[in-house]
């Protein structure tokens, strides 16, 4: 089911191992290669966000609410909770006639350490606007407004918006619904898919036209991919791997993290593909290392891009005196046909 993907070394000695599974899919849906079991059922968590934004686009929300790249990127984000993120989420809500109190995602301290420190230094408590999912929830509320759906119950699993999201996710992933779902940390439904099907969804994000989807869905996916590529700070935040990956590749590689060790990648352009990773125990310590090694072995990152992303590739492990005592390193070889 799971295979070794990375290891922690100490003085050159292997100390700990991280297991997981990954699938790589071509835009037409063909499985190119896998590590572990590609049919493994996983929960996408926030890696579903680009697809949860589809109803808003399909309902004409971009024009109706004058949404730009940064707005759409925030709707797909697990953001750091900085002022730039919270202020934009507030502005999105206002365009639909909603107050911040309409958000049902709950509040938590900003994900970004500098952002959390800045908020605390002002003596302010976190609000739902600082929740990393506030953009997604704002997008859902705007979709409800556009579709004339009840907003107070927008997170219920049987709400028409959530049913539509499940249908669209199944379509882009190439599976028959209905999909099973649980409740995410932000209280929205979160969806379960086979690993390869999730990678197929990211392949569709990478090249929507090659996925054989209806034209309007392909166009909406294309718009989402372009927005995330154009506004990497909105997708995550300064100092975060996802923002660094998108920025270092000029938007050619669009990544999206999910909780519990999930990571999706859409490689856009002439060599397009989708990738989905799941770390077995849900840990994030080795996640970025594995994502970069997958892209490196697939020949999808240049030497310059790898150099720019080096801090995330083999993270140094230092002790309490600041001595370099080890690193996290990849521990797999892809079988590339």
Explain what the structure shows:
The chain has 337 residues and is of the alpha+beta class. The protein has one domain: Beta-lactamase (3-Layer(aba) Sandwich). Helix content is 39%, strand content 20%. It has 15 helices and eleven strands. Strands 1, 2, 3, 7, 8, 9, 10 and 11 form an eight-stranded antiparallel sheet that branches. The chain has a three-stranded antiparallel sheet with strand order 4-6-5. A hairpin with a 3-residue loop joins strand 7 (253-258) and strand 8. Helix 4 packs across helix 7 (134-147). The radius of gyration is 19 Å and the shape is globular. The mean pLDDT is 97.
Strand content: 15-25%
CATH fold-level label:
Beta-lactamase
Poorly predicted spans: none
The biggest beta sheet is recorded as: 8 strands, antiparallel
Shape descriptor reads globular
């Amino acid at each position: 089911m799971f295979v070794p993907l990375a290891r922690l070394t100490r003085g050159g000695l292997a100390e700990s191992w991280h297991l997981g599974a990954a699938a790589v899919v071509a835009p037409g849906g063909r499985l190119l290669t896998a590590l572990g079991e590609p049919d493994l059922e996983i929960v996408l968590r926030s890696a579903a966000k680009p697809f949860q934004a589809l109803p808003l686009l399909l309902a004409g929300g971009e024009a109706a609410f004058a949404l730009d790249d940064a707005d759409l990127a925030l709707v797909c984000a697990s953001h750091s909770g900085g002022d730039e993120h919270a202020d934009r989420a507030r502005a999105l809500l206002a365009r639909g006639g909603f107050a911040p109190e309409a958000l049902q995602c709950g509040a938590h301290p900003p994900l970004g350490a500098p952002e959390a420190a800045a908020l605390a230094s002002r003596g302010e408590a976190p609000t739902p606007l600082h929740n990393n999912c506030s953009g997604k929830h704002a997008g859902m509320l705007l979709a409800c407004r556009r579709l004339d759906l009840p907003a107070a119950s927008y997170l219920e699993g049987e709400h028409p918006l959530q049913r539509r999201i499940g249908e669209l996710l199944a379509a882009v992933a190439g599976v028959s619904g209905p999909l099973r779902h649980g409740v995410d940390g932000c209280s929205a439904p979160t969806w379960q898919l086979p690993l390869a099907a999730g990678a197929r969804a990211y392949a569709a994000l990478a090249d929507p036209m090659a996925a054989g989807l209806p034209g309007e869905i392909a166009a909406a996916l294309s718009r989402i991919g372009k927005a995330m590529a154009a506004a990497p700070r909105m997708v995550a935040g300064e100092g975060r791997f996802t923002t660094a990956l998108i920025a270092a590749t000029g938007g050619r590689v669009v990544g999206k993290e999910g909780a519990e060790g999930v990571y999706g990648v859409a490689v856009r352009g002439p060599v397009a593909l989708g990738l989905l990773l799941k770390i077995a125990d849900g840990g994030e310590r080795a996640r970025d290392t594995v994502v970069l090694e997958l892209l490196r072995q697939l020949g999808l990152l240049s030497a310059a891009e790898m150099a720019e992303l080096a801090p995330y590739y083999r993270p140094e492990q230092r002790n309490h005196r600041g001595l370099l005592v080890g690193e996290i390193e990849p521990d797999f070889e892809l079988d590339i046909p």
